[in-house]
Amino acid sequence: MKPLTLPIQDLIKANDCRFGLYIVKHCADYLMNKVVASTRELRINNTIVVIVHGIKTRSTWQGEVKQALEKVGLIAIPTNYEKYDLLRFLFPLEWFNRAAIKIVEDEIKRVNNKFTDGHISILAHSFGTYITGKILLSKKYKFDRIALCGSVLPMSFNFHLAEGNVSKIINEVGCKDIWPVFAAKCSLKYGSSGSFGFNRGNYVEDRKHVDFAHSDFLNAKFCERFWIPYFCGNSIILPGDVTAKPSKLITFLDNTIFFWSAFLGFGLIFYFLIKLLIRYL
Length: 281
Known about the structure:
- This protein is an alpha/beta fold.
- It has 2 domains: 1-45; 47-280, Rossmann fold, CATH 3.40.50.1820.
- Helices cover 48% and strands 14% of the residues.
- The protein has helices at 8-13, 19-45, 61-71, 86-90, 98-114, 127-138, 179-186, 193-196, 220-231, 248-256, 258-280, and strands at 47-52, 75-78, 119-125, 143-149, 166-174, 205-209.
- The chain has a 6-stranded parallel sheet with strand order 2-1-3-4-5-6, with helices on both faces.
- Helix 3 (61-71) links the parallel strand 1 (47-52) and strand 2.
- Helix 3 (61-71) packs across helix 9 and helix 5 packs across helix 6.
- The longest helix is centred in the N-terminal third of the chain and has 27 residues, at 19-45.
- It is globular and about 80 Å long.
């Protein structure tokens, strides 16, 4: 225990000796600080962060983020549904997404069975946010905290259906991230919440970053500044760039690309079907 320092002047001026009260107060403060520190350490050691990557990537960034998370005592579990191509991503039938969703869900199931007393959280990027949304709505698992970045979930996503199964959700918004806009325009399944935010404070907190594009979140520096305090349960969450707005390019694309992007999307689907026919006929 640290040495006890007493305000001598107050003791001299007081009519009654308060020596005992100061000792009790000092001890109580010391014990409270120890309890808070122990509780935080216990939470960190029992928090498992499942990492879910996006499309067109071998998910090599997960190693850097995993190392940053584990450096402070968190348990990080990367997932990998292999490199996911653009055609499967844009195809409107949900059947094409089932394999990737099942792989991630199986990983979460194993984590849930292994860490029965743990707090399971999710860190998801791009298409990984869509997979996370599907698993969240299944209501098979309870999650502590979820962090989304580069999100392609629709702004109208039914978060209320998952109430009671997740304690907190934060959405990192990249004000220079054009890809959620493209995804929203090319397929009715997706939305541009990674570019504009959900703007629905009852269910998810948007945290905007003015100079960030689609993958600028995926590094140790960002993880240490924003995600580690979030997953460790600190009460203070750094706000990002509070007054940030989507770039003019994102606004322009959001207002003008509907017709030609939809045409491009259906063109890719048609091309994919032709390839399948040629391959199997």
